[in-house]
Amino acid sequence: MKALWKPMIPLVVVTVLAECLTRYGVVPAFLLPAPSQVFKCIADEPAVFKKAFLETAIASMSGLGMSIVIGLFTALILSYSKLIKDMFYPYALFFQTVPIIAIAPLLVIWLGYGLPTVIASSFIVSVFPIIANSVLGLLSADRQLLALFKMMDATQPQVLFKLRLPHAMPQIIGGVQIAGGLAVIGAIVGEFISGTGLGGLVDVARNQQRVDQVFAAVLMASLLGILFFSFVSGAKKFLLKNR
Asked: Could you say which DSSP state residue 164 is in?
């Protein structure tokens, strides 16, 4: 609570201000719905929002899980050989700059409508921060310690698991923290195309001019991103508590 009360002050102020601006007609409700109307929208259709939230959560977690596994494996390969890194790492950076909204229609053509497209979209957006941070961490091990391991005839697996990975853990977890929020964003973009989850709910609400429903879906998507970040932060404290 000591950590939360300070950020809560601007949140409460903005919420009250938005409520007053809309309630007293300063800002039209079709542009900025009152916060009370947003929460009422969720309370009136809890089953709809629950279903959409779970669909987005499942897709985001699946995409993030794939990103962690494939991203770490790719980073290990790239960090193992300077030649391999020089050949393929620029392509990882290049694909990170490709906007997911531009290739989402291609994912539908390749994978069809539904969960696979959303997971693929979430994965594509979230994998590159993990690769970049993991490569940076794996290659930044102390040179004197590397020389010591080499002098003691340590094998490559021993160097990896006893030196490089422990040393790179803060950077790896930092990449996962970034990827957690991006995984939700990628899932939402995929859902705009596939018509499922919170993204599909936003798209339907936009067509119906339901601004309150749009805000409600965005609020729940933000909550999902915060949950991901909080979970990774907790894991970070647990994994690095002895460092």
From this structure: I
Give the CA distances from residue 87 to residues 83, 133, 164, in Å, rounded to whole numbers and listed in that order: 6, 18, 22
In the block, which residue shows the tokens 């018509």?
195
Structure tokens that stand for 141 in this block: 């091990």
Q: Provide the terminal-to-terminal Cα distance of the chain, rounded to the nearest Å.
A: 26
Give the mean pLDDT of 131-158: 87
- pLDDT category, 242, cuts 50, 70, 90? low
Compute φ and ψ for 73, nearest 5 degrees.
Answer: -60, -45
**Angle at 12 (CA atoms; ends 210, 38), nearest 5 degrees:** 15
The tens digit of pLDDT for each residue in 183-238 reads 999 999 999 888 889 999 998 988 888 899 999 999 999 999 989 988 888 888 88
CB 74 within 8 A of CB 129: no
**Which amino acid does the sequence have at 46?**
P
Contact 160, 137 (CB under 8 A): no
Could you tell me the domains of the chain?
45-239 (1.10.3720.10)
The number of helices, as runs of H, and strands, as runs of E, in the chain is 11, 0
CA dihedral angle for residue 222, residue 224, residue 225, residue 231, rounded to 10 degrees: 140
